[in-house]
């Protein structure tokens, strides 16, 4: 069944349809939000908030034309709300610091190249970083990205092109630094 059909079932009171959507999208949505916020606890909170809004809208009878872009739009807006609230950042940093004491750090399961790419992407502006994550990590089409971010397809294309150009510059600069450091 399509995601929109599950939303239709949810609007009819069939809560198990929502469980299927959560199962289907929790991991990719968490990955997207985590890449934007760089904080596991906060990313999980945003994902839960996103699914709560999806559930509430479904219970009210709302069925989006395209579920996936709509879901990413909710999550992106929740991230933007977080960025607008400076106090919440301090709360999460404090929580994270408190959690981290006495714990063994996670072993990074990504290759060095992947970490290098993510670090390079993080140097981009939020606008460029967001479209690149949605396109290349979440595999959304341009039209879906436009819906998710509430921008035109031409703006999506422009941001992807400019983001990739800036990313190329960043990667080349990093390569030069690495060559100088090893030589």
From TrEMBL:
InterPro entries: RNA_pol_sigma-70-like, RNA_pol_sigma-70_dom, RNA_pol_sigma70_r2, RNA_pol_sigma70_r4_t2, RNA_pol_sigma_r2, RNA_pol_sigma_r3/r4-like, WH-like_DNA-bd_sf. The keyword RNA-binding does not apply. Residues 22-85 form the RNA polymerase sigma-70 region domain. Residues 115-167 form the RNA polymerase sigma factor 70 region 4 type domain. CDD domains: Sigma70_r4 (cd06171). Keywords: Sigma factor, Transcription, Transcription regulation. PANTHER family: RNA POLYMERASE ECF-TYPE SIGMA FACTO, RNA POLYMERASE SIGMA FACTOR. Belongs to the sigma-70 factor family. ECF subfamily. This is RNA polymerase subunit sigma. The lineage of its organism: Bacteria, Bacillati, Bacillota, Bacilli, Bacillales.
